[in-house]
Amino acid sequence: MTLALCTATISLSALRNNLQQVKKCTGNSQILTVLKANAYGHGMLETANALQTSDAFAVARIEEGISLRAICDKPIIILSGIIGVDAVKACVAHNLQPVIHNLDSWHFIKQHAANLAYWLKVDSGMHRLGLSAEEFAQLAQEKDTHCQGLLSHLSDAECEDTTQTQLQLQRFNALHQLWPELPCSLANSAGVLLHPSSHFDWVRPGIMLYGMNPAKQETAISKNLQAVMRFTTKVVAIHDIPAGESVGYNGRWQASKASRIATLAAGYADGYPRHAKDGTPVWINGASYPLAGKVSMDLITVDVTGSAVKIGDEAELWGEHISANTVADYADTISYALFTGVSQRVPRIYCE
Ligand SMILES: *Cc1c(COP(=O)(O)O)cnc(C)c1O
User: Fold this and answer.
1) How far apart are the C-alpha atoms of 299 and 146, rounded to whole Å?
2) Torsion over CA: 118, 119, 122, 125 (sign)
3) What residues contact 91, with CB distance under 8 A and at least 6 apart?
4) 169 φ, ψ (degrees, to nearest 5)
5) Which of 21, 29, 34 should be mutated for ligand 1, with most atoms under 8 A from CB?
């Protein structure tokens, strides 16, 4: 039971289906399920429980790893690296495997926790995190047995133009040859879906587990993904307005004819994107209606002219009928930002 009007319903069966799709796509690769940022807003612990058949989990921050360790025996990898002796101690205490992406932190870890299991990240072209080829070559000579694997990240795997992905693959393969015994990991969801040669020993799917295809291009597998989050709210007011009146802050939307406006209890403080344009679809009672007027903190307004929409009706902001990718396109953002932006005041409700 919840009093909240605006809720995020999370489908556990959709999560499990999406993990099955990853398995279908990657065959023998192991699966490092990405649970960072509270499982992209879906709830880290509940998601981890639903996806227990993953081989390991990845989070961005050490605090996320510590919370996850309380319910999980699988390897947990900290993707964004760690800084300082307290962080190294926490990794040891909670059995977390950090990703090391520069030589200084490698030396620091060897000095403070010589037995800690870790991964090495190389920079294959994104230039965000990762050892240079020369730095990795140095460590490859040592062949430290505590290193669990080699990873790098693709910057353009979802793009139609595959030039950058080819270049990254080529560099990654060349570096791997310096230390061929190391298990390798390169693919994010777009790599899983579109680039089989990026699968290697471990794949790292995130967004596709939450039901979204990060690419415009569809594949047999992407068509089988199911939206996990259903972000819904209720109609709290109905207003009939004459032609020429405008709606919301600064009158961005103006009625060209007599119109009926439904006001819904969801705004940017709930995580509905403030930059959503007029026309962004909202699903109410089996039909799609256009957003009309700027998004407020707690409310949005929708043009329901000619419909029987009434106070108390449920509206889907994204989920089964309106893809989060569609809303993201209307708001010049991506589904990742929508999911992680669903705020704390929105209760997550778990269902099969
Ligand atoms: C977030 C992240 C992923 C998952 O990316 P998706 O596009 O959500 O599949 C994989 N690897 C790293 C290093 C990440 O930070």
Assistant:
1) 52
2) negative
3) 62, 65, 78, 82, 97, 98, 113, 116
4) -60, -45
5) 34
Strands 253-254 and 287-290: unpaired
What CA–CA distance (Å, rounded) separates 144 from 114?
10
Q: Is the CB of 211 under 6 A from ligand 1?
A: no
Confidence category of residue 257, pLDDT binned at 50, 70, 90 = very high
229 close to 270: Cβ distance less than 8 angstroms: no
Mean pLDDT over all residues of the chain? 97
Q: Please tell me the predicted confidence (pLDDT) of residue 56.
A: 98
| pLDDT given at position 288 | 98
The helix/strand/coil state of 184 is: strand
Distance 219 CA to ligand 1 centre (A): 19
Q: What is the pLDDT of residue 1?
A: 72
| Gap from CA of 32 to ligand 1 centroid (Å) | 10
Angle between helices 163-176 and 133-142 (to 10 degrees): 30
Can you tell me the distance from the alpha carbon of 235 to that of 179, in angstroms, rounded to the nearest whole number?
59
Give 240's strand partners: 260
And the tokens for 31? 């699966």
The closest-lying atom of ligand 1 relative to the alpha carbon of residue 191 is 9
CA distance 129 to 127: 6
Catalytic annotation, residues: 36, 249
Structure tokens of 223?
A: 């068509």
Ligand 1: centre distance to CA 311 (Å): 41
**Does the CB atom of residue 101 touch ligand 1 within 6 A?**
no
Amino acid identity, residue 215?
A
- Its pTM stands at 0.97
Residue 180 structure tokens:
């061929």
59 lines ligand 1 (CB under 6 A): no
